[in-house]
């Protein structure tokens, strides 16, 4: 059975969900999770788990009460903790006759098309064999420049990689709220999201947890890519004992981000652009350029750019913003910020006649092959 024929669910479990109030790995929680995974498998779903928690487990085993700031110690803790974490998963799942495997991924692997396809093929074979893959970033060897930085991003990448039907991100709250519920008692749960608006991005605050690396904003960014790829995302409270069972039974749980009516083809190359490094800068486009990008799948030409934010070089990742300040796309720059700034407000004829803009006279600011549109 191919990936397209399977009903695949990717669930991301954060450190704040896996550990108890004392910062220790919660065995009882893992047992309840194993029960849920077993139940949804019986219902026809094929689950993949993206887990955090290796560093937290390592710090506990090494009797470190505070998270260290130096990379070698963090990587040492990840090395110790990975062994503990995957053993705990294996033990909990064995009770329900489920075999688990560990897959450690770095961003460098997913940036290389050949390695990316090898990862996909390995996951497909594991699923064929009835194994539940336990995926984590390889914190033992990853350096800052090659890290995903949070497993929300990794979960989105895996979901796109295996063409999942549903991605679930477990949080320490019930979903996305109109405000931070820890600070504002009037905050209400947003049950359904059909588009990522500037207002929605504004309500996403930082992480409320002391053990995790992601916050609500990283989940929203993951949702933006998954929606473009045609994959549903649900953010819900991972501590509820039946969230997965209820979700797969069709019940409303947490906040659901519904995919676009027409999904975009998110290739491995475009996945890297969408989920890679933080954008180095941005370009502001006029309404005509916005329409061409969103409705016609065009490249971004210099004549459609009305402003530049930040400083970026050719081949840096940049955001593309409309006149209201909303990010509509992300892509790889075909020119530097200095070139694009000089071209702003000029006609195509003027650009062609300026020897300093020879590059933009022949090439777009962002080529459509290097462009991910979020709408």
Folded structure, characterized:
The protein has 375 residues and is α/β, with parallel strands linked by helices. The protein has 2 domains: 3-268, 3-Layer(aba) Sandwich (Carbamate kinase), CATH 3.40.1160; 278-373, PUA domain (Archaeosine Trna-guanine Transglycosylase, Chain: A, domain 4), CATH 2.30.130.10. Helices cover 39% and strands 18% of the residues. The protein has helices spanning 15-18, 27-42, 54-61, 71-94, 107-111, 113-128, 151-161, 198-203, 216-229, 243-248, 268-275, 287-296, 337-343, 348-352, 358-362, and strands at residues 8-13, 46-51, 100-105, 132-137, 166-171, 192-193, 232-237, 255-257, 281-285, 305-310, 317-321, 327-332, 371-373. The strands form 2 sheets. An 8-stranded mixed sheet has the order 3-4-2-1-5-7-8-6, with helices on both faces. A 5-stranded mixed sheet has the order 10-9-11-12-13, sandwiched between helices. Mean pLDDT is 86; it is low at 143-148 and 206-214.
- C-alpha Rg (nearest Å): 22 Å
CATH architecture field of the largest domain: 3-Layer(aba) Sandwich
In helices, the fraction of residues equals 25-40%
Q: How many discrete domains?
A: 2
Number of helices: 15
**Which H/E pattern describes the elements?**
EHHEHHEHHEHEEHHEHEHEHEEEHHHE
The largest sheet, given as strand count, sense and whether it forms a barrel, is: 8 strands, mixed
- Mind telling me the CATH class of the largest domain? Alpha Beta
CATH topology of the largest domain: Carbamate kinase
| Beta-strand content estimate | 15-25%
Going across the major beta sheet, what is the strand order? 3-4-2-1-5-7-8-6
Cα end-to-end separation = 32 Å
